[in-house]
Amino acid sequence: MSISAKLIFLLTITVGLVMFFTSFLFLLQRESGLESALRDELRAHAVTLQTALEENYADGRTRESQNLIDRLRENSRIYAVLLFDETGGLIKISQPESEEIFRQPPELPEILKTGEAVEFTRNTSGHKYISVILPVNLGNGKRGALEMVKPLDLIEAEIFNARINWLATTLFLLAVIFLVVVLVLNRSLTKPFQELLKGAEMLGGGNLDYRVEVPKTKDELAVLAVTFNKMADNLAEQNRLAEIESENRLKMEKSLRHSERLASVGRLAAGVAHELGAPLNVIDARAAQILENAEITPEKRTKNLNIIRRQTERITNLVRQLLTLARPFNFNLQIVSLNEHLRETIEELNIEKEKIEVEISAGKIYKTRADTDFLRQVWINILQNARQSILNKNDSGGKIEIVLSEQKRENRNFVVVKFTDNGGGIAPEHLERIFDPFYTTKDIGQGTGLGLAVAYRIIEEHGGFIEAVNNKNGGATFTVFLPQSEPSAVAGG
């Protein structure tokens, strides 16, 4: 139920109940007043008739008294008038057809004895009557009695009509109050609230140009509407400034990316030029020696040719690395035991000769589906970076710790290979870019920045990813995540 409906219901019910009880009390007072007025009227008529009868009997005009009672027959508001003598006998009655109970009222002997007036109510034959019995001086010291009876049916009809009028008036006023409450609330509360709600929905939906209609009531809701529109103006202005800032930022990012691309191309060109230049110079010099010295010994000729072949192989490796980064991979996937594959790669590198200790920790045999040759290239690139970091910090060597485990991320099971070294770590400004192609912190000729980029792409093509962080105690940690091909087995099982 909406707030306006609740308010309409509560206000209508509250005002209706107050009005109902107030008017009901007024109705009861009116009914009581009608009955009281009827009693007063009956007493007044009885006293007037008592006085007239006593005067007539005092003057001996008995006949006039009887005529006076007969004339009261024509009064529709009087049911009966009865005159009793000193013994309680009926002298005269205005309506002979009146009920027998009024001809011999039980209260009559007491009134004749005490001379005190009595007023009472009787129910007879399904009707209600009010009676007043007054003592009457009949002359010669004789005390009679006068009874005047009026039917209460007269006021009961009026009371019934009053109740019908009260009910109709109450229902009419309730309807009027309901309509007034509905109109007032709709104009002063419901409509402004609906407008504010619509405005909030429009702003929430992204339409910052929408403004609510300000009520003309100049009350709190009008102030709220004005404030809402000011808020919308501020949001629109902030959005405009944000768009301008975003456009400027995009332009700046495009400019930076262009600069970075140019710088990357420059670094690549310089690195490739040096990498190619050095072996080409060696090839040229060795070839010149062979050409210029016709009498060179076979041993020197063979030596020079071997040097030329090694330099050619160096160039070939550089070109292969560039092609590996650029072209699609053609993997030969198979189930690989990472524990064994890592040991074989470490033996091939022979890092221990540089006093660098390599330790592998794995409580189980971890397997993944991968291309062994490409995966070996990843291990080599990561280990060579760790080796270089250790040697740059300390020529006397260091330690590389490799830990294999398993982990669940995004409802996928991964084999985790963590490489931790105690070298110099990665400078914070380089940490986020170490996997970017052509990005390197090495001097020209020391590397082209392709190793980690190639490694990242190889792992990504296998469905995994690589993370790199600096250690709190120095050095860096590279973590490789590879999809787990099957549940790991206990080592040696």
Characterize the structure shown:
The chain has 493 residues and is α+β, with helices and mostly antiparallel strands. The protein is built from 11 helices and 14 strands. The protein has helices at residues 3-58, 62-71, 100-103, 108-114, 153-204, 220-292, 298-326, 338-349, 372-393, 428-431, 451-461; strands at residues 80-84, 90-93, 118-124, 127-139, 142-151, 334-337, 356-361, 364-365, 367-370, 398-409, 412-421, 465-470, 476-483, 489-490. The chain has a 5-stranded antiparallel beta sheet with strand order 2-1-5-4-3. A 5-stranded mixed beta sheet has the order 7-10-11-13-12. Strands 6-9 form a two-stranded antiparallel ribbon. α1 (3-58) runs antiparallel to α5 (153-204) and α6 (220-292) runs antiparallel to α7 (298-326). The protein is rod-shaped and about 195 Å long.
